[in-house]
Specification:
Blueprint: E1 2-7, H1 14-23, E2 28-30, H2 31-38, H3 44-53, H4 66-75, H5 77-101, E3 106-110, E4 125-130, H6 133-144, H7 148-157, H8 161-167, E5 170-173, H9 178-202
Helix pairs in contact: 2-5, 3-5, 4-5, 6-7
The structure holds adenosine-5'-triphosphate (ATP).
């Protein structure tokens, strides 16, 4: 199965693009959704997180206190690494299990931090959703009702646009409106189908 890792900065249009591929019956696996499922009460990830960071990361009802965990991992770089060491193998195993069940020429795996991760999930191609900083800012401000400073601070905390562009195999330029976006998705879909077919034939 050809696997396409979809990534991009905050508000670049990842979810919008995923929806367009899904409308063409292409399966989309979302690493964030998997990560959220893995930390539900009773899951082993939550147990490991509690052992690593202490019971303070739990709410009274036993669910994960995300704000508390965020505070802890932002307090020191090694804490973030510790959390990644717990979560990544579990998330990657779940992604691989879901990919193995799929019957499709190719699939998308949405991983917002694919390019930032030290040890990312291995995909065949990296598809980057890109738009100019000002467009990204405006879309985040209006979607999340943030101030310009708040939106800018989140963008500044992420990998730079230039660094992402260097690492991508494929690119969707999401500067313009929905029509241009849909057109690019269709074009890429056709090229992924060709690529997937060529692979099957040479296997
Ligand atoms: P996040 O990183 O926060 O998960 P995202 O990368 O998934 O965000 P979207 O939620 O898809 O980004 O898009 C951000 C906002 O911009 C949304 O409100 C979406 O409707 C809007 N948007 C996306 N693409 C376009 C476009 N081509 N034209 C106009 N608005 C767009």
């Amino acid at each position: 199965m050809l696997t396409i890792g979809l990534t991009g900065g905050i508000g670049s249009g990842k979810s919008t693009v995923c929806r367009l591929f899904a409308e063409m019956a292409i399966p989309v696996i979302d690493a964030d959704i998997i990560a959220r499922q893995l930390v539900q009460p009773g899951q082993s990830a939550l147990q490991q997180i509690t052992e690593a960071f202490g019971p303070a990361v739990l709410n009274e009802d036993g669910s994960l206190n995300r704000a508390k965990l965020r505070d802890i991992i932002f307090s020191a770089a090694d804490k973030k690494q510790q959390l990644d060491n717990i979560m990544h193998p579990l998330v990657y195993a779940q992604i691989a299990a879901e990919v193995a069940e799929l019957k499709a020429p190719y699939c998308l795996i949405a991983v917002p931090l694919l390019l930032e991760s030290k040890n990312p999930y291995a995909v065949d191609r990296v598809l980057l959703i890109d738009c100019p900083l000002e467009t990204q800012l405006q879309r985040v401000i209006s979607r999340d009702q943030l101030s310009r400073q708040q939106a800018q601070a989140i963008i500044d905390s992420q990998m730079s646009r230039a660094d992402r562009l260097v690492k991508a195999d494929d690119l969707i330029d999401n500067t313009a409106g929905p029509e241009q976006l849909a057109e690019q998705v269709k074009r890429l879909h056709n090229s992924y189908i060709l690529l997937a077919t060529a692979r099957t034939q040479s296997a």
